[in-house]
Amino acid sequence: MLKSSNPKVLFIEPFYGGSHKVLIDTLTACLVDYTLVTLPAKKWHWRSRCGALMLYEQIPFVNSESVLFCSSVLNLTELLGLRPDLQSLKKVVYFHENQLIYPVREIKERDIQYSYNQIITCLSADVVLFNSNFNKVSFLDNLKKIIKILPDCRPKELKSKIEAKCKVLYFPVEYPEISVNDKPSEILHIVWPHRWEFDKGPEDFFKVLFNLKDENIPFQVSILGESFTDNPPIFSTAKEYLKEEIINFGYIDSKKSYYNILSSAHVVVSTAKHEFFGVSMLEAVYCGCYPIAPNALVYPELYPLDCLYSNLEDLYSNLKRLCLNPTLAIEERRKMCLDFDKYSTAAVVSNFVKIINDLVFS
Predict the structure, then answer these.
(1) Less crowded by CB within 10 Å, the N or C end of the chain?
(2) DSSP per residue, 285-329
(3) Exposure pattern of 91-127 as b/e (b: 16+ CB <10 Å)?
(4) Left (φ > 0), alpha (ψ -120 to 50) or beta: where does 5 sit?
(5) Alpha-carbon distance 124 to 141, whole Å?
(6) Tens of pLDDT, residue by residue, the chain (362 residues)
(7) DSSP state of 183
(8) Region(s) of the chain under CATH 3.40.50.2000
(9) Keywords for this entry (predicted)?
(10) Is the pTM higher than 0.70?
(11) DSSP assignment of 83-129, as one string?
């Protein structure tokens, strides 16, 4: 990648792993000079609550840096209080997700601390970047609901103060160099490439697959994505109940093998309850899968309406239709026309460089 000489950036990332690491590594690769301070990607809740305290002694005193860049995991306001020398820098915060709409049964169950951290971080920043328009809009539109939880002394004009700083910078996707071969049309291959966590909706996904199996509708499935020591129990149940349909089960270490599986599948499904971009879905679609996703969250921003479902009955009907005629999935994917370039690493890096140049020199 061609490096450019730009204002020196101090990158601070309290959760340096996964998509957070990918973003930082992608952005730093385009810069001649930068400073990077990170914490390992573990114990997210502690990083979010105490990241400023954990980091403030590790950050070198400002030398030639002009811009401070951090993710919204960091409470930027606390850090600036602990390190007043950083206040002179232009401050940019990046939202991979926002805590204001994390799914909870009732508003009273929400731990407001995480939302509070993100709100005051925005107030301390000069520019607030979101990885999708949905992420931005959902954050701004839910500020009032969160602030209403305060018993009194609620701040006024909070939305307008933050909105003026907001921009969208899509997450950079490095597309695989892979040729999409002709897919077999005898049996539908479904792929679910998400983290094995509650907010990705595995219960809903497997409920639909169980119903398909109970009706003797043929399909194959690959359950990919990162798993953890404490996985939702439904995965063990599904592994046994769908043992005849499962052809891949678990995280794939090799990127090449992972992309080969994606390119062999007909359909990629999301049942997410909390999604602001969805790299794994976009990668699968790039590899030739037809996307089926909720008509909610970020998905209407990325995919045509025909790909979106309204409820589980709708998802079941869509999958059943394609299971009975896999050729339809192949044909419908070929008809899709998506602008993959605007999410590419090259496009995102170019936009990032422009943002920091405008911030420093305007």
Answers:
(1) C
(2) HHTTPEEEEESSTTHHHHS-GGGEESSHHHHHHHHHHHHH-HHHH
(3) bbbbbbbbbbbeeeeeeeebeeebbbbbbebbebbeb
(4) beta
(5) 19
(6) 445 567 999 999 999 999 999 999 999 999 989 999 999 999 999 999 999 999 999 999 999 999 999 999 999 999 999 999 999 999 999 999 999 998 765 556 567 899 999 999 999 999 999 999 999 999 999 999 999 999 999 999 999 999 999 999 999 999 998 876 678 888 999 999 999 999 999 999 999 999 999 999 999 999 999 887 789 999 999 999 999 999 999 999 999 999 999 999 999 999 999 999 999 999 999 999 999 999 999 999 999 999 999 999 999 999 999 999 999 999 999 999 999 999 999 999 999 999 999 999 98
(7) P
(8) 9-172+344-361, 189-341
(9) Glycosyltransferase, Transferase
(10) yes
(11) -GGGGGSEEEEEES--GGG---SSGGGS-HHHHHHHHHHHHH-SEEE
* Look-up of token digits 């609620």: 154
Q: How far is residue 190's CA from residue 268's CA, in Å, rounded to a whole number? A: 6
Q: 9-172+344-361 — its CATH code?
A: 3.40.50.2000
- Which residues have C-beta within 8 Å of that of residue 26, sequence separation ≥ 6? 172, 174, 345, 348, 349
Residue with tokens 């490095």: 174
- For residue 62, what are its two tokens? 């400002």
From CA 239, how far away is CA 237, in angstroms rounded?
6
Q: State the sign of the Cα–Cα–Cα–Cα dihedral 48, 42, 176, 282.
A: negative
Query: What six digits make up the tokens of 361?
Result: 């020199």
> Which residue, chain included where needed, has tokens 């509650």?
198
